[in-house]
């Protein structure tokens, strides 16, 4: 396994996440896909840290984890509040605002 | 042994004011009694923003920031330069005005435009009970102060990682603030969900761009990126990374084709929060765009120039054409904000790697005047009300001049400034960015910009015609009598719109002197 394999894997995970955000309907699943994208970035960062022989990338991965955790707090609170009103977390049902 | 980075506290003072006020605000929320919370929170937030504004001005007047005076601090993570301080002062000043709008208590019968308890499900018996109670939400003040701190960090970030952290610090509170409207709570919550999901999606793109740039250059410091770009520009990984970073930043700046969230979120969010987003977020996002492109990738401008050129055209056309079809004023102003993002990008293109970039000072000036005018326009929107809160449908504005000549005149001033009519600040701003673009040979873009300005002028003037030349509907909305905070905001923004249109010289000079980036 060369470092390129890890980079390709990360790119694939990022793409799966991005496609998931675009096609999935449930807000929680969409959010999970965003998290998948963030974690694929972590893999990329750590791989590049190994490739360039610096530790910056590994430290950045920690920053990303902390930010992702904060995002979960805010995101779940918002999705929860809309779910309690509508009894649904589908992004298709949230259609009051258009045109 | 890790060496602690050297901190230049005087240069960090504007940021410390904001983050300090935000932390104190959280403690006040936890420990102060409910009756005293609102005045205390307001005072803390105002001290933070005004303090940040004054300390930025003090810093700029006591220190030589141009040329060799531009410096970095906190282990090279933050830039202390003219453009950074100018934009920080702009954000803090516009932030103080927005916070005054949050504090308005005379317009809504329930004394606040924010929901009393955000956790209570919309439409439940408890929610209906709270709708008419005079309980007010004060969590919005620390949230706004945190967001402002993040924005001021964003424009000074000399490191892509700091830029990412600042992006999240400014975004996360904004997502929450969008969902706090007192009336039409379902719309507000929907706006928050949409903004959050799309915002998180865009941040992931920014982050992947950061990782690719790190892989290509071995560092995320803008000066190191610049060196790598100069040595081996056109490296695939680097170009791909830059493209992804631009996507993330353009989303925040609500530039078409990354604008789809803008109309929905602007319409659904409480109007004072919309004003806050439209003014401050735009300044912050363009500050970061300028720094990334001019400092990080300035020596490789032909990689990004065609991209920005195209995006600017798309943004101006989408904003102006779709703005024509709107019947809701908040939505119309959202499309106007997309068109203005295109005009701002025209200024960004006025970049010259060899000498002074006229685009930098022009864009900074445009951000200032656009922010002031937008806050004013949204402040007027909060005053036109019917039984169900704000009446933002176009038809409710018919004949407003007969009911309230002063408000109609003020709104006309803001709309003329947004359209870019001479003797208003909007004209001076547009003139500055277009001249910067022409200096750099981008005249076809300026032709497109002038044509779209003409199209956009139609929908601004339509509102003016409606206010002055139609009969008011018999059961039309009323014009609320604003309290002191909204009156101050209207006076300041209207005066600035007029003064910066008639005698813009001194502020233009100020922007010109401040136009330098460390790097």
TrEMBL record, chain A:
<keyword id="KW-1133">Transmembrane helix</keyword>
<dbReference type="GO" id="GO:0005886">
    <property type="term" value="C:plasma membrane"/>
</dbReference>
<keyword id="KW-1278">Translocase</keyword>
<feature type="transmembrane region" description="Helical">
    <location>
        <begin position="61"/>
        <end position="83"/>
    </location>
</feature>
<dbReference type="GO" id="GO:0030964">
    <property type="term" value="C:NADH dehydrogenase complex"/>
</dbReference>
<keyword id="KW-0874">Quinone</keyword>
<feature type="transmembrane region" description="Helical">
    <location>
        <begin position="6"/>
        <end position="23"/>
    </location>
</feature>
<dbReference type="InterPro" id="IPR001133">
    <property type="entry name" value="NADH_UbQ_OxRdtase_chain4L/K"/>
</dbReference>
<keyword id="KW-0812">Transmembrane</keyword>
<dbReference type="Pfam" id="PF00420">
    <property type="entry name" value="Oxidored_q2"/>
</dbReference>
<comment type="subunit">
    <text>NDH-1 is composed of 14 different subunits. Subunits NuoA, H, J, K, L, M, N constitute the membrane sector of the complex.</text>
</comment>
<keyword id="KW-1003">Cell membrane</keyword>
<protein>
    <recommendedName>
        <fullName>NADH-quinone oxidoreductase subunit K</fullName>
        <ecNumber>7.1.1.-</ecNumber>
    </recommendedName>
</protein>
<dbReference type="GO" id="GO:0048038">
    <property type="term" value="F:quinone binding"/>
</dbReference>
<comment type="similarity">
    <text>Belongs to the complex I subunit 4L family.</text>
</comment>
<dbReference type="GO" id="GO:0042773">
    <property type="term" value="P:ATP synthesis coupled electron transport"/>
</dbReference>
<feature type="transmembrane region" description="Helical">
    <location>
        <begin position="28"/>
        <end position="49"/>
    </location>
</feature>
<keyword id="KW-0520">NAD</keyword>
<keyword id="KW-0472">Membrane</keyword>
<dbReference type="GO" id="GO:0050136">
    <property type="term" value="F:NADH dehydrogenase (quinone) (non-electrogenic) activity"/>
</dbReference>
<comment type="function">
    <text>NDH-1 shuttles electrons from NADH, via FMN and iron-sulfur (Fe-S) centers, to quinones in the respiratory chain. The immediate electron acceptor for the enzyme in this species is believed to be a menaquinone. Couples the redox reaction to proton translocation (for every two electrons transferred, four hydrogen ions are translocated across the cytoplasmic membrane), and thus conserves the redox energy in a proton gradient.</text>
</comment>
<dbReference type="InterPro" id="IPR039428">
    <property type="entry name" value="NUOK/Mnh_C1-like"/>
</dbReference>
From TrEMBL, chain B:
<dbReference type="GO" id="GO:0012505">
    <property type="term" value="C:endomembrane system"/>
</dbReference>
<dbReference type="GO" id="GO:0042773">
    <property type="term" value="P:ATP synthesis coupled electron transport"/>
</dbReference>
<comment type="subunit">
    <text>NDH-1 is composed of 14 different subunits. Subunits NuoA, H, J, K, L, M, N constitute the membrane sector of the complex.</text>
</comment>
<feature type="transmembrane region" description="Helical">
    <location>
        <begin position="193"/>
        <end position="217"/>
    </location>
</feature>
<feature type="transmembrane region" description="Helical">
    <location>
        <begin position="140"/>
        <end position="157"/>
    </location>
</feature>
<comment type="similarity">
    <text>Belongs to the complex I subunit 2 family.</text>
</comment>
<dbReference type="InterPro" id="IPR010096">
    <property type="entry name" value="NADH-Q_OxRdtase_suN/2"/>
</dbReference>
<feature type="domain" description="NADH:quinone oxidoreductase/Mrp antiporter transmembrane">
    <location>
        <begin position="157"/>
        <end position="453"/>
    </location>
</feature>
<keyword id="KW-0812">Transmembrane</keyword>
<dbReference type="InterPro" id="IPR001750">
    <property type="entry name" value="ND/Mrp_TM"/>
</dbReference>
<feature type="transmembrane region" description="Helical">
    <location>
        <begin position="12"/>
        <end position="31"/>
    </location>
</feature>
<keyword id="KW-1133">Transmembrane helix</keyword>
<feature type="transmembrane region" description="Helical">
    <location>
        <begin position="43"/>
        <end position="62"/>
    </location>
</feature>
<feature type="transmembrane region" description="Helical">
    <location>
        <begin position="82"/>
        <end position="103"/>
    </location>
</feature>
<feature type="transmembrane region" description="Helical">
    <location>
        <begin position="332"/>
        <end position="351"/>
    </location>
</feature>
<feature type="transmembrane region" description="Helical">
    <location>
        <begin position="306"/>
        <end position="325"/>
    </location>
</feature>
<keyword id="KW-0813">Transport</keyword>
<feature type="transmembrane region" description="Helical">
    <location>
        <begin position="443"/>
        <end position="469"/>
    </location>
</feature>
<keyword id="KW-0874">Quinone</keyword>
<comment type="function">
    <text>NDH-1 shuttles electrons from NADH, via FMN and iron-sulfur (Fe-S) centers, to quinones in the respiratory chain. The immediate electron acceptor for the enzyme in this species is believed to be a menaquinone. Couples the redox reaction to proton translocation (for every two electrons transferred, four hydrogen ions are translocated across the cytoplasmic membrane), and thus conserves the redox energy in a proton gradient.</text>
</comment>
<feature type="transmembrane region" description="Helical">
    <location>
        <begin position="363"/>
        <end position="384"/>
    </location>
</feature>
<dbReference type="GO" id="GO:0048038">
    <property type="term" value="F:quinone binding"/>
</dbReference>
